[in-house]
Write a structure and sequence with these properties.
The complex is a heterodimer of chains A (529) and B (414). Chain A has 17 helices and no strands. The N and C termini of chain B lie far apart (72 Å). Classes of the chains: A mainly alpha (529), B alpha+beta (414).
Chain lengths: 529, 414
């Protein structure tokens, strides 16, 4: 081992300063870039969320409606495309080669390009805000992240900026997905058959296939939108033979699988964390892998359950309702396996474990309320109400974001070689749980009482619950600063040195290399028994 | 901070508003709105079963987890087990049971009532006594009774002062309109939805109905309200800056009252038509026109051009002359060709004829809609007179309904 490292030492040389990061083809550097970018955008999206909750604190107009619409839209787009997706892609880049015993990703230059498309995309999304301050244009996209035509045809130049941001982000996602698939198929260590791959690697394989399947329809859709806006076509204009509902189909054909694109990688990392801290092997490996396949397959055939109020024929309503219900089975299998993994374990509750358990509880609420939403007629009550807003925040914050935070704490000592401050981590967890539930439980009731989403001002009967929700949001938002504190501390080199295994119960190839791992790992591939 | 300041802060921050909704609703705000149509009753029933089911699942599963978290911990000296799958056939069979229960609940407990509700909700035609056409537009609703020759617009009537916290809020803040949809109870009504511009969604929670109104297409739903009363809801699909300000108010009345209302409404429309017809031969004073124009402006123009007449920078031009305005080049070009903006980008009072043209026909390719079909000659003359003599504009122009009529007639000619 030592001899091998001495021999490889010259490989560790890399440019210093900014050019190291600009030109890097190293999967660990690129992984870190993705995660850092994601943290920054998570804070940007979070600040926008705080503005939303401040406007909704009480029934009056503080932020003008046209600005409010921009804030909610950019909050959604930033969180989905620039915070959660880069975070899971970063984890994939950092972890997959180490988990399968490969020296790097299969296509390192493409990997670099994939990342560096993202910062310009994020800039395109938020730049119109600043241009507006200088009197150019009328601000960012203001149509909601769903960009329903013809409202998006009518919108200002912010919509064009968002369209180009989507081009860049789609390109970036396609490149990284291709890279993940090629790496997994070709670069596994000898002896690591497909069914011996870590669960996280499996979950990303399915995610990558989903991304390749569903991003092209969205890109086609926004191209049609762009043509409608500027070249006089009528794809979404009924007066010219088009159909506004066509946009809804194109968008949700992408948009529903997108939910699983966000979710699956974190559902893949969860068993690793649960198993580590219960000191017990993962339960139901095959069942989880097959469930991932089932979820991936079902996710592309249920999209129109987002459109139950758009006037679909009876047959379509029934089909999309029943097919949506079917997803509950593989998701329930995942939950079953998670519980069975911790059952009769020898558990300890370090920060990553707390976030993993929080994930199960919050995502559980998101999943169960999703089941309620699948009813095509009852959905008329929930659709576009705050019930829906609460549901998808439980599903997307409770699932992916909690999972990403759990994974971040889990791998932080591995990546930086330093243990983070456990007390701050625990505070972060409890404050997040209290803040999150206080923010979103009232929103279920608001939706049931009849408050629609995307309104800057509301009727008086919604006042108390909105105030509670806003207070919760402030607690939730400020909690995330504790994460930032922990990240800065370990990056400054504060904290106990981490061992190679980091956590007592950790298994897997990534825990056989030192913490932090050398610049290149597994140049000689390990043999998996 | 003095106690008075704290009190002021609390009352200002909405806690003070506690008393208002309590008095107005006398119900807890988190209650499901009382259903008054067959569909709403069906969905409430499904909603209750399902919320009950998921609550039980949540509590049971959480208890299992908490049990495990409490008993299977290292600090209790537990030696971890190492099973990774069901070990016996019995265990395998037992582990399948939860999924069978879930499938049963999905497709039987929930699936069958849902199937019935989908079919019932789609049956808009059989037994329908009446048709109402609902047209969504930025940002108001038009209600039309095709058989009864009644047609009117329903716009929000909450004053801007209440929205901006300058006045005490009405209990029905943001959910009050100038002209509610009036429907008879106990009759099946087929509702046809259309849109003039973007997608809107017509939602009254107590009816259990939310249906999109989509430009260029017809959508339908139905109601059979079983209790007289005023039911309130609002647009549920983001439709631009006025999305929060297009409430739906339905006044459900008895059959007799409805007939009476129809009579009044028809008489009102006749009177209005007569007034409009006569208006072209009457010469109004500036004061009369300005007074009427202010009301028209508040109901139709203020959502975009703002009650101050200052518009919204970059989006909606000011009415007040002398102010700078920049927007997309296409919009600026259209304003310039009509003589309403200087090359330096300042709004000016353009020619009267162009002003009438803009209000009548709108400006294609911009958010400015055509008011020719929704406003009368008198209304248009009033609002233009008002605009040209308010917000710091003092052109002194007085536009008579006859001029608007003449503009309409000119537009009719090939």
């Amino acid at each position: 081992m030592n001899a091998a490292h001495a021999h490889d030492a010259h490989h560790d040389e890399h440019p210093r300063g900014i050019s190291r990061w600009l030109f890097t083809t190293n999967h660990k550097d690129i992984g870190r870039l993705y995660i850092g970018f994601s943290v920054i955008m998570f804070l940007v999206g979070g600040v926008l969320a705080m503005l939303i909750r401040t406007e909704l604190l009480r029934p009056t107009l503080m932020i003008p409606p046209e600005i409010y619409n921009q804030i909610i839209t950019v909050h959604g787009l930033v969180m989905v495309f620039a915070a959660v997706m880069p975070a899971t892609t970063g984890l994939a880049n950092y972890l997959i080669p180490m988990m399968i015993g490969a020296p790097d990703m299969a296509l390192p230059r493409l990997n670099n390009w994939g990342f560096w498309l993202l910062p310009p995309a994020a800039l395109l999304l938020v730049m119109p805000f600043f241009l507006m301050l200088f009197g150019i244009g009328n601000g960012a996209i203001d149509t909601g992240w769903t960009m329903y035509a013809p409202l998006s045809v009518q919108g200002g130049m912010g919509v064009d900026f968002a369209i180009f941001a989507i081009y860049l982000m789609a390109m970036s996602s396609l490149l990284s997905s291709i890279n993940v698939i090629v790496t997994i198929f070709n670069m596994r260590a000898p002896g690591m058959s497909m069914m011996k791959m870590p669960v996280f690697v499996w979950s990303w394989l399915i995610t990558a296939f989903l991304l390749i399947a569903v991003f092209p329809p969205l890109v086609a859709g926004v191209t049609m939108l762009f043509a409608d806006r500027h070249f006089g076509t009528h794809f979404f204009n009924a007066a010219g033979g088009g159909d506004p509902v066509l946009w809804e189909h194109l968008f949700w054909f992408f948009g529903h699988p997108e939910v699983y694109i966000l979710l699956l990688p974190t559902a893949g990392i969860l068993p690793h964390i649960l198993s580590t801290f219960s000191r017990k092997p993962i339960y139901g490996y095959k069942a989880q892998v097959y469930s991932f396949w089932a979820i991936g397959a079902l996710s592309v055939v249920v999209w129109a359950h987002h459109m139950f109020t758009s006037g679909m024929p009876v047959g379509a309503q029934l089909y999309f309702m029943y097919s949506t219900m079917a997803i509950s089975i593989p998701v329930a299998i995942l939950f079953f396996c998670w519980f069975a993994t911790i059952w009769q374990g020898s558990m300890t509750f370090e920060t990553p474990m707390l976030f993993a358990l929080g994930y199960i509880v919050l995502f559980g609420v998101g999943g169960l309320t999703g089941l309620v939403l699948s009813d095509a007629v009852a959905d008329q009550q929930y659709h576009n109400s705050y019930f829906l807003v609460a549901h998808f925040h439980y599903a997307l914050f409770g699932g992916p974001v909690m999972g990403i935070i759990a994974a971040t704490y889990y791998y932080l000592p591995k990546i930086t070689g330093r243990m983070f401050n456990e007390t701050v981590g625990k505070w972060h967890f409890w404050q997040t749980m209290v803040g999150f539930n206080l923010t979103f439980i009232p929103q279920f009731f608001l939706g049931i009482a009849g408050m629609p989403r995307r309104i800057p001002d509301y009727a008086l009967q919604f006042a108390h619950l909105n105030m509670l929700s806003s207070i919760g949001a402030y607690i939730l938002g400020s909690a995330q600063l504790l994460l930032v504190y922990n990240l800065i501390q370990v990056m400054r080199g504060v904290g106990k040195k981490a061992t190679a295994q980091v956590w007592e119960g950790a298994r897997g190839l990534e825990f056989t290399v030192p913490s932090p791992p050398p610049y290149h790992t597994f140049e000689t591939q390990p043999v998996v028994q | 901070m003095s106690a008075r300041k704290v009190l002021a802060l609390l009352s200002g921050s909405g806690l003070g508003a506690w008393a208002v909704p309590q008095a107005a609703y006398a119900r807890y705000p988190w209650e499901f709105p009382t259903p008054v149509t067959p569909i709403a009753k069906e969905t409430l029933w499904v909603h209750n079963i399902f919320l009950g089911f998921i609550s039980i699942v949540f509590v049971v599963v959480l208890s299992v987890m908490l049990y495990s978290l409490f008993f299977h911990r290292k600090s209790r000296g537990v030696k971890p087990a190492n099973f990774t799958a069901p070990r016996t056939k019995l265990q395998f069979a037992l582990s399948i049971i939860p999924f069978l229960i879930l499938a049963f609940v999905d497709y039987v407990v929930m699936g069958i009532p849902a199937y019935h509700a989908v079919l019932a909700s789609a049956n808009t035609r059989s037994g329908a006594k009446m048709v109402v056409k609902v047209t969504g537009m930025q940002w108001k609703w038009q209600y039309q009774y095709p058989g009864l020759h009644i047609k009117y617009y329903s716009t929000i009537s909450t004053p801007q002062a209440q929205i901006h916290d300058l006045a005490r809020k009405n209990p029905h803040f943001l959910r009050q309109v100038n002209h509610p949809l009036v429907l008879p109870v106990n009759e099946k009504i087929r509702v046809i939805l259309m849109s003039k511009d973007v997608i809107h969604s017509w939602w009254v929670p107590a009816f259990g109905v939310k249906e999109d109104s989509i430009p260029g297409f017809l959508r339908e739903t139905w109601l059979k309200i079983d209790k007289p009363g005023v039911y309130r809801g609002q647009c549920a699909e983001l439709c631009g800056v006025g999305h929060a300000f297009m409430p739906v108010v339905v006044d459900a009345v008895s059959d007799d009252q409805f007939k009476q209302w129809v009579g009044q409404e028809q008489a009102r429309e006749r009177a209005q038509k007569a007034e409009e017809a006569a208006a072209t031969s009457v010469t109004y004073t500036e004061a009369q026109l300005v007074a009427r124009g202010q009301k028209v402006f508040t109901g139709n123009c203020a959502a975009c051009h703002q009650p101050s007449g200052m518009g919204i920078p970059g989006t909606f031009p000011p009415i007040s002359a002398g102010h700078p305005f920049s927007a997309a080049p296409a919009m600026i070009a259209k304003l310039r060709s009509r003589g309403f903006i200087t090359p330096a980008g300042r709004i000016v009072e353009g020619p009267v004829a162009n002003h009438i043209g803009i209000v009548l026909d709108g400006i294609a390719g911009t958010p400015m809609p055509a008011f020719g079909s929704s406003l009368s000659n008198l209304d248009i003359a009033s609002v233009i007179t008002f605009e040209r003599n308010s917000f710091g504009n003092h052109t002194g122009d007085v536009i008579q309904p006859a001029q608007v009529q003449a503009a309409r007639a000119a537009a009719q000619k090939p």
